[in-house]
Amino acid sequence: MLTVSGIHTFYGPIEALRGVSIEVRQGEIVTLIGANGAGKSTLLMTVCGNPQARRGAVNFEGQDITQMSTHKIVRLGIAHAPEGRRIFPRMTVLENLQMGAYIGGDEQFRKEIDRVFNLFPVLANRRNQRGGTLSGGEQQMLAIARALMSRPRLLLLDEPSLGLAPMLVKQIFATIREINEREKVTVLLVEQNAFHALKLASRGYVIVNGRIALSGTGAELLANREVRAAYLEGGAH
Amino acid sequence: MPTPVGAALRTALKEAAIAAGVALIVALPLVGFRLIDITGGVSIQTRFDWVVYGVAVVFIGRLGLALWRELRIPHARKAGEASSLAIFAEQIAAFTRQYSLYFGIVGAAFAFALPFMPFTDQYILDVAITVLIYVMLGWGLNIVVGLAGLLDLGYVAFYAVGAYSYALLAQNFNLTFWESLPLAGAFAALFGLLLGFPVLRLRGDYLAIVTLGFGEMIRIILLNWQSLTGGPNGVSSIERPSFFGYPFTAVAPEGKTAFHELMGLEFSNSHRVIFLYFLILILALITNAFSVRMRRLPLGRAWEALREDEIACRSLGINPTNTKLSAFALGAMFGGFAGSFFATRQGFISPESFTFIESAVILAIVVLGGMGSQFGVVIAAAFLILVPEFGRDLAQFRMLMFGFAMVAIMVWRPRGLIAHREPSMRLHPVGGPEAAKAGS
Fold first, then answer.
1. B301–A86 CB contact, under 8 Å
2. How many contacts, defined by CB atoms under 8 Å, are there between A and B?
3. N or C: fewer beta carbons within 10 Å in chain B?
């Protein structure tokens, strides 16, 4: 479904991705783990075309999207919940969700709103509350819900567990599974919380200094000694 | 250990001394010396007694203020309360917000009835027209600043483009006001795009600087392009408005009927003023209706989302380029309409009328009113135009009054008079109000 082949992405003179190739197949949850600054978020953002890869290619459902601008890529059926939630703080929950359905318009909004409220009942209760007044966990749910409003086939999630209490982390990961299994949305998940992410994912990649260091199924990576040493021991719950 | 009162007194004395010192430095050259005309030249007259009085007033005033604050606020602050005046201001604002629809209807009804009120004379109508021009400009700029969150310090440029468009079209091509109006709006919108393109990547203070420069550029071009704009002499004898082709003159030009003949009225100068008043009232109301409607349309919502978070907007499939450009262009268009009106009302325009201070006043209207609040713009425009107007009797002190009023607003209502964002949608759109009630 999504094929990233040998991409190099730069921030000015700094090469953040040095020839990264990954693949996401229909129906999978693929996770990308790595330390701070390894290039996880950059990879997601490169898929979205902001920044664009200087070399290499990004393919989505057979279409080359390497040089496409972000708002066009989103229209192809990719939704991106960016790092740090980035909800609209002064707009209400309902208005935030409406912006999620921006491309499809009001018709799309009416079609998707119930589905999204089903996945996130707490948002339904808070629908007229301003985004900025929600708790951290609720804001994260809103960010994911907003991304789902465009009815994407591929959902890119950037650190959904960031800054959340362990209870909420569990809840968020359970919801991601539900989105994948029940709503048939393919998920590419970037996480620092390697344990939860690998347990959830069908496959995973470990990214180190802008290169893919390891890949395998979630279970394989969980059992891998290097992965355990680098990302799980000490930090595992 | 000094007693609390002693400590308060010491702080207050110190503050008062500093304030008095500043007052002395400022007052000595400004008040202390005065140029007077005497036969055969000018001479300097000293009035140090004035300086002494002034400094004394500042000292005592500051002392009193500081003492009052030191002795009573500590208790209030401990309890986490705002001052009683701030609470009062918030109550008024809340009341206004709650009934803003009724205020709007009553206000509009009053505005339509104003020309026929017994106490209304030409002076009141003239002031009202000026207020309405600024209300319209405020609503236009509110699209750019309040909704899209793009700080524009050069809005007067579009006002100028609109005014000159009408003036030059009327003079060179004999177009009437109604024919020129859409063209002037289109020209202004075009200039909005022209400004929009280079500043697309800028935000906040950088954007403000470029827009400020743009406003000055337009003014300087108008000043120097003598052959087209007449330079500093401006454009004079601009065609006055007619009532859809029936001129407001005592004697109609050949082949035409004057307005008072058409209506069977006695000729009066006030007909033209009343017509101008209704013209700007309707133009302003159109601007308002447009903004209110836009907020409910996808483009208007995208403006607001863009103001909140540009990166999030991109990832939702919003094209930030088009969205920003449309805000600049549409905001500019209303500035252009207002400019055309200004030109036809004044009959004479020159670059003098389009200085930076105009941009500043319009921006002050938007900010004081509470960014994005339509009703706040009306109050702030009325306030900013009427205070200097009614303060005319205070002569040179009226700008002082004006400054004092602005400071007072920013102290008590730091986010604007009616700082509040009304959600553009409330109920659950699927099940209707019943479902929403059941769900909440």
1. no
2. 91
3. N
Mean pLDDT across chain A, nearest whole number?
Answer: 91
Contact A94 B311 (CB under 8 A): no
Domain spans of chain B?
4-81, 99-412
Reported in sequence order, the residue ranges of A61-202 that DSSP labels E, i.e. its strands, are: 63-64, 78-81, 154-158, 186-191
Distance of alpha carbon A140 from alpha carbon B114, whole angstroms: 53
CA distance B319 to chain A (A): 6
Please list every residue in chain B whose beta carbon sits closer than 8 Å to the beta carbon of residue A150: 316-317
Predicted TM-score (pTM) of this structure: 0.80
pLDDT at A227: 87
Is 0.90 exceeded by the ipTM?
A: no
Cβ–Cβ of B308/A89 closer than 8 Å? yes
Q: What is the pLDDT of residues B130-139, one digit of tens each?
A: 999 999 999 9
End-to-end Cα, chain B, rounded Å? 58
- Write out residues in chain B with pLDDT < 50, as ranges: 1, 76-80, 428-440
Nearest-CA residue of chain A relative to B300?
A99
Tell which residue, B277, B275, B283, has the closest CA to residue B138: B283
How far, in Å, are B237, B254, B285 from residue B271 at the CA level? 19, 20, 21
Tell me how far apart the alpha carbons of residues A120 and B236 are, in angstroms, rounded to a whole number: 65
Interface contact B430-A110, CB threshold 8 A: yes
Please answer yes or no on whether A50 and B314 come within 8 Å at the CB atom: yes
Tell me which chain A residues have a C-beta less than 8 angstroms from the C-beta of B201: none
Rounded Cα distance, B91 and B367, in Å: 19
**Whole-angstrom distance, CA of residue A220 vs CA of residue B228:** 77
Structure tokens at B185: 């709006």
Residue A144, chain B, CB below 8 Å: the answer is: no
> From residue A42, how far is each of A161, A230, B7 by CA, in Å?
18, 21, 58
pLDDT tens digits, one per residue of B232-286: 899 988 888 877 777 787 777 777 777 877 877 777 778 888 999 999 999 999 9
What is the Cα B230 distance to its own chain's centre? 28
